[in-house]
Amino acid sequence: MTATTGSASQELAAAKGVAPAPIATTTSSAHDGRGSTMIAEDVVAVIARLAAEQVPGVHKIGESSLRGMFARFGRSKGVDAEVGMEQAAVDLEVVVDYGHPIPGVARQLREAIIEAVEHMTGRQVVEVNIDVVDVYLPKVEKRQTRRELR
Asked: Which end of the chain is more exposed for a tag (fewer CB within 10 A), N or C?
């Protein structure tokens, strides 16, 4: 049995006789020789949610349909996160205000979430998946007719 020290992509490249692509490395304060720091997935979800709430055009985070009634409750409803020792990923469900361009809102969401999570956790955010589940239409007030004013 042989021990492998490279990644699967490096081993595949070596088997095909091509030079492997360089691997980007990141440092993490997760283990500094004096102990390790674990960050719960719910913590990252809360950070992502708070960052997302600041983005213009985001009406609500989480589902607006009947499915939302059965979803989990709490501060991270509508946000799921996966957290490793060096990286994190976030899935987000949003309702966008009518009139705001969805691609622009999604771009701002990604930027805000990545910045907040990386700043607060030291983990590299590898992806932010956004699921736009609805568009919020403001209610138009019913105009009263002269008969209704009496």
From this structure: N
